[in-house]
């Protein structure tokens, strides 16, 4: 059944999916505030698509979004729910949106959430997407909010471990997020002066890493800082290092452990004392930077404008300094790899 409404004001739904991310609450705030300007009402759905499946609603008004700008996480909660993994899941989503008189849905998430949004749009769902990921790996947008906060956090950690690595003549591995791309590792590694950066786009040889460390020792540098994305792959294995073989509803395994693998190999091959720091959720947490607060706000306002105009099947995007609209369908099966020219700059400072 197609969506058909005649009221002057709209009910706008919003959900947040995939991993939490600094700036989500700023997006929610912006969508609500701009929608109110249009005379529209906004309701949130808790725990991503699960909230629509279960009609778990979070009312959003001026008071609900007050003082959200600096708050980390998401007041709506999140989950890895994939409605296409449930019997009649997509049909239930559409049915519940009609029953709740939701005339436009704003889906905030990374590739998995946005691809669900695209599939639902093809079935008649009036959806607008907002890209969100600390990994900055979504194509069609120059930046995603949360990325700036993540690289600032990782850079601070690199700065802090530098002194202890130098004091104890240690190799320290810093494992950061990045399943298929190494944007966090590359940006933070450059900013923090890492001696080696390992990313998924360029499988590495553990022998080459050890040679680099030995070369540093030969010139009097008895410590090294290595930043490794969790999806970095050693050529000797050419596979992801995973914590478990279990997969989520989108088919993803939980990555983690590359830092420990590298550390064990370095100690075995060089004899140099090596330690590992795995940042994990720390990269997602805390207050967003000023850049991410502004970008999230711009995305949210644009999405509310699109919902008002009925510009469905699209997502907001940053290109240059402009916030534009792009088709959700253009995202299918794509990730944005690290710019090779940027990584070449990082390599200048290896060793």
UniProtKB/TrEMBL annotation:
Pathway in which this enzyme or protein is active: Carbohydrate degradation; glycolysis; D-glyceraldehyde 3-phosphate and glycerone phosphate from D-glucose: step 3/4
Short name of any one Pfam family annotated for the protein: PFK
Keywords annotated in UniProt: Cytoplasm, Glycolysis, Kinase, Magnesium, Metal-binding, Transferase
Residue numbers binding substrate: 133-135, 170, 177-179, 230, 275
Superkingdom of the source species: Bacteria
Catalyzed reactions per annotation: beta-D-fructose 6-phosphate + diphosphate = beta-D-fructose 1,6-bisphosphate + phosphate + H(+)
Positions marked as site (Important for catalytic activity and substrate specificity): 112
GO biological process: canonical glycolysis; fructose 1,6-bisphosphate metabolic process; fructose 6-phosphate metabolic process
Annotated site location: Important for catalytic activity: 132
Enzyme Commission code: 2.7.1.90
Subunit structure comment from the entry: Homodimer or homotetramer.
Function: Catalyzes the phosphorylation of D-fructose 6-phosphate, the first committing step of glycolysis. Uses inorganic phosphate (PPi) as phosphoryl donor instead of ATP like common ATP-dependent phosphofructokinases (ATP-PFKs), which renders the reaction reversible, and can thus function both in glycolysis and gluconeogenesis. Consistently, PPi-PFK can replace the enzymes of both the forward (ATP-PFK) and reverse (fructose-bisphosphatase (FBPase)) reactions.
Protein name: Pyrophosphate--fructose 6-phosphate 1-phosphotransferase
Gene (name only): pfp
């Amino acid at each position: 059944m197609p969506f058909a409404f005649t009221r002057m004001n709209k009910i706008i739904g919003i959900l947040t999916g995939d991993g939490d991310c600094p700036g989500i609450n700023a997006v929610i705030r912006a969508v609500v505030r701009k929608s109110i300007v249009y005379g529209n009402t906004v309701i949130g759905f808790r725990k991503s698509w699960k909230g629509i499946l279960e009609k778990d609603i979070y009312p959003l008004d001026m008071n609900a979004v007050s003082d959200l700008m600096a708050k980390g996480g998401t007041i709506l909660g999140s989950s890895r729910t994939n409605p296409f993994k449930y019997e009649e899941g997509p049909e239930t989503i559409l049915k519940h949106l009609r029953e709740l008189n939701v005339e436009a849905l704003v889906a905030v998430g990374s590739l998995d959430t946005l691809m669900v949004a695209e599939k639902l749009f093809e079935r008649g769902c009036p959806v607008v997407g907002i890209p969100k990921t600390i990994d900055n790996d979504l194509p069609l947008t120059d930046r995603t909010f949360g990325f700036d906060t993540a690289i600032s956090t990782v850079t601070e950690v690199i700065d802090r471990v530098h002194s202890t690595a130098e004091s104890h003549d240690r190799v320290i591995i810093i494992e950061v997020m990045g399943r298929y791309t190494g944007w966090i590792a590359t940006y933070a590694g450059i900013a923090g002066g890492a001696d080696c950066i390992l990313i998924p786009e360029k499988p590495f040889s553990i022998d080459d890493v050890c040679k680099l460390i030995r070369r540093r020792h030969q010139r009097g540098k008895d410590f090294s800082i290595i930043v490794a994305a969790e999806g970095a792959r050693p050529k000797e294995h050419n596979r992801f290092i995973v914590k478990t073989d279990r997969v989520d509803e989108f088919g993803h395994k939980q990555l983690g452990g590359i830092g420990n693998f590298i550390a064990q190999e370095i100690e075995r091959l060089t004899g140099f004392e090596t330690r590992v720091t795995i940042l994990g959720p720390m990269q997602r947490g805390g207050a967003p930077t000023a850049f991410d607060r502004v970008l999230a706000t711009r995305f949210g306002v644009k999405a509310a404008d699109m919902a008002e105009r009925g510009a469905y099947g699209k997502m907001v995007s940053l290109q240059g300094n402009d916030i534009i609209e792009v088709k959700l369908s253009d995202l299918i099966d794509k990730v944005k790899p690290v710019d090779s020219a940027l990584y070449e700059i990082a390599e200048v400072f290896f060793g």
